[in-house]
Automatic annotation (TrEMBL):
<feature type="binding site">
    <location>
        <begin position="203"/>
        <end position="206"/>
    </location>
    <ligand>
        <name>substrate</name>
    </ligand>
</feature>
<keyword id="KW-0068">Autocatalytic cleavage</keyword>
<keyword id="KW-0645">Protease</keyword>
<dbReference type="InterPro" id="IPR000246">
    <property type="entry name" value="Peptidase_T2"/>
</dbReference>
<dbReference type="GO" id="GO:0005737">
    <property type="term" value="C:cytoplasm"/>
</dbReference>
<keyword id="KW-0378">Hydrolase</keyword>
<dbReference type="GO" id="GO:0016811">
    <property type="term" value="F:hydrolase activity, acting on carbon-nitrogen (but not peptide) bonds, in linear amides"/>
</dbReference>
<dbReference type="InterPro" id="IPR029055">
    <property type="entry name" value="Ntn_hydrolases_N"/>
</dbReference>
<dbReference type="Pfam" id="PF01112">
    <property type="entry name" value="Asparaginase_2"/>
</dbReference>
<dbReference type="GO" id="GO:0008233">
    <property type="term" value="F:peptidase activity"/>
</dbReference>
<feature type="active site" description="Nucleophile">
    <location>
        <position position="154"/>
    </location>
</feature>
<feature type="binding site">
    <location>
        <begin position="181"/>
        <end position="184"/>
    </location>
    <ligand>
        <name>substrate</name>
    </ligand>
</feature>
<feature type="site" description="Cleavage; by autolysis">
    <location>
        <begin position="153"/>
        <end position="154"/>
    </location>
</feature>
<protein>
    <recommendedName>
        <fullName>Isoaspartyl peptidase</fullName>
    </recommendedName>
</protein>
<dbReference type="GO" id="GO:0006508">
    <property type="term" value="P:proteolysis"/>
</dbReference>
Length: 281
């Protein structure tokens, strides 16, 4: 069984005119990822490629679309986990890298560490030939206009290639965040998690998500509950502390789960036996 689910963030889409384009794009990303799976690429490669697509699109809070912090520059986080080996790679406080998810993968595959931050992480990226961009790359008209925004919308993907599950996440964080703030996204178990049974990625207000360890929290309910019901119970728990966010997941059999307690969440999924991609907000 092969399956993929992606998200483009949970929250209140204040710029409602963007909703159709954003829904169409996450559906395009899921469809592209599933085509890659059918071509034989493994889940790590597929997860990185689809998250890069979301990082490169200016309408999502990751990569080029990252929100600016209180001083007007980006600080991006990303993470990835291979459920078959429990290998982890995460980065935080990235300012100049085009695609932080690529660096998270490098940390997982080419370092002895699980997480690197700030200048040290960017030094590791430079040593490994990743692409850097100038600051103005991130200063899109949209980001400047919504500098006063009130929520974050991390991007992420969970991929099953028939052998293993991989979860990947990337974010620019919350608007006008304190310099040095790190949210849930690069924190394993909170922003992302994968093992041999299921994989998950969270989105929303990171400070709330970390309190309930949202992505790993599925293990409290699954497999006694279906992955879909387990995800819903996790969001109920988030609501119980007045937290706000969303969660996507899939299990080893390709079953899909997603839920949110915000006004919406951009999502799309595709799996074997499914004729067309499903997505929405």
């Amino acid at each position: 069984m092969r399956a993929i689910i992606v998200h483009g963030g949970a929250g209140d889409a204040k710029r409602t005119e963007e909703i159709p384009e954003r829904v169409d794009f996450v559906k395009k990303v899921a469809n592209y990822g599933f085509d890659l799976l059918k071509s034989g690429l493994n889940a790590v490669e597929v997860a990185v490629r689809v998250v890069k697509m979301l990082e490169d699109h200016p309408l999502f809070d990751a990569g080029r679309g990252s929100y600016l912090n209180e001083e007007g520059f980006v600080e991006m986080d990303a993470g990835i986990m291979d459920g078959s080996t429990l290998s982890i790679g995460a980065v935080a406080g990235i300012k100049r890298l085009k695609n932080p998810i690529e660096l998270a993968r490098l940390v997982m595959e080419k370092s002895h560490h699980n997480i690197l931050i700030g200048d040290g992480a960017e030094k590791f990226a430079l040593e490994n030939g990743l692409e850097f961009v100038p600051p103005y790359y991130f200063y899109t008209d949209r980001i400047i206009k919504i500098f006063e925004g009130t929520y974050g919308d991390t991007v992420g993907a969970v991929v099953l290639d028939g052998n293993k599950i991989v979860s990947a996440v990337s974010t620019g964080g919350t608007p006008k965040k304190h310099v040095g703030r790190v949210g849930d996204s690069p924190i394993v178990g909170s922003g992302f998690y994968a093992n041999s049974e299921f994989g998950a990625v969270s989105t929303g207000i990171g400070e709330d998500i970390m309190k309930v360890i949202l992505s790993f929290r599925i293990s409290l309910y699954y497999p006694n509950y279906s992955i879909s019901d387990a995800v819903k119970k996790c969001i109920d728990d988030l609501s119980g502390i007045n937290g706000h966010g969303g969660l996507i997941a899939l299990d080893k059999n390709g079953n899909i789960g997603y839920s949110f307690n915000t006004k919406g969440m951009f999502f799309a999924y595709m799996k074997d036996g499914q004729d067309t991609v499903v997505g929405g907000f």
